[in-house]
C-alpha cells in the first residue's frame, strides 16, 4: 500500500492533466497527433504524451502593415501604410491550414495593398480612400477564408508622395482656384451687363422713367455728408439745349 506521502504526488499529476481555456480562447485538441475537436472556455483534461492542446486567441487583432513602396496606375511612386483588423473565426483552420497565421496575414496585406495601388491613379487614391480600403478588405478576406480568418476592416493610414510632386500638386490646386475665380467673376460681369442692358431698355421705353431715376439719384446724393455737390441734368435737357444752340447758329 502506498503511504500518505504518495498522495501529493498523485494530486500534482492530476493537476498537470488540467488545462484552462479562457473565455477569449479556443483549444484545438490533438490525440495521438490527430485533430479531435475544439474545446471551449473552462478546465479541460489533457493527458500528457497521448494528447496535446493548442490555444488560439479569438479576439480582434490588428496587423500594422509597414510602409510599402508602390507605383500608381499613372506611374507615380508613393509609399503607403495601413492597419488590418481581423479575428479567428475557425480555430482549427488557423492551426491546421497555415503555419503562422499572423505572419501570413501581414504578408497577404502587403501584397494586396501594393496590387490595389497599382490599379489606381493617385487622384483616385487620395479622393476614394474608403472605397479602396473596402476593396483591399474584400480581397484579403477571400484569400484568408481557408485559414479560418475573418477580416473586419482595412484602414489606409498615410499616403506619402514625393516632395517635388507635392509642390506640383500645390501649384495645380492654386491654378485651379484662380481659374474658378476668373470664371465666377466673368459670369458676374456678364449677368451685371445683361441686367444693365435690360434696365436701360426699360428706362428708354417708359416715359418719365429717366426723370424719376435722375430725381432718385439726386435724393441719394443729398443724403451724403460730403462737401462736394454734384448737379445732374437729364439727357432730354441737354438735347434741348443742343438743339437751341443749333437754331441760334443758323
Q: What is the element string, with H for helices and E for strands?
A: HEEEEEEEHHHHEHHH
- Terminal CA distance reads 159 Å
The CATH architecture of the largest domain can be named as: 2-Layer Sandwich
At the first level of CATH, the class of the largest domain is: Alpha Beta
CATH superfamily of the largest domain: Band 7 domain
Give a quick account of the main beta sheet: strands, pairing sense, barrel closure.
3 strands, antiparallel
> Could you give the count of β-strands?
8
Q: State Rg.
A: 42 Å
Q: Judging from the principal axes of the Cα atoms, what is the shape? A: rod-shaped
How many domains make up the 3D coordinates?
Answer: 4
Number of helices: 8
Poorly predicted regions are none
Helical amount: 40-55%
What is the average per-residue confidence, as pLDDT, rounded to a whole number? 80
What would you say this structure looks like, in words?
This protein has helices at 6-16, 91-96, 101-118, 122-127, 129-144, 163-205, 209-222, 235-248; strands at 18-21, 25-31, 34-39, 42-45, 51-57, 61-71, 77-88, 149-160. The protein has 4 domains: 6-56; 61-161, Band 7 domain (Tetrahydropterin Synthase, Chain A, 2-Layer Sandwich), CATH 3.30.479; 166-205; 213-243, no CATH class. It is rod-shaped and about 150 Å long. It has a 3-stranded antiparallel beta sheet with strand order 3-2-5. A 3-stranded antiparallel beta sheet has the order 6-7-8. It is 51% helix and 25% strand. It has 250 residues and is of the alpha+beta class.
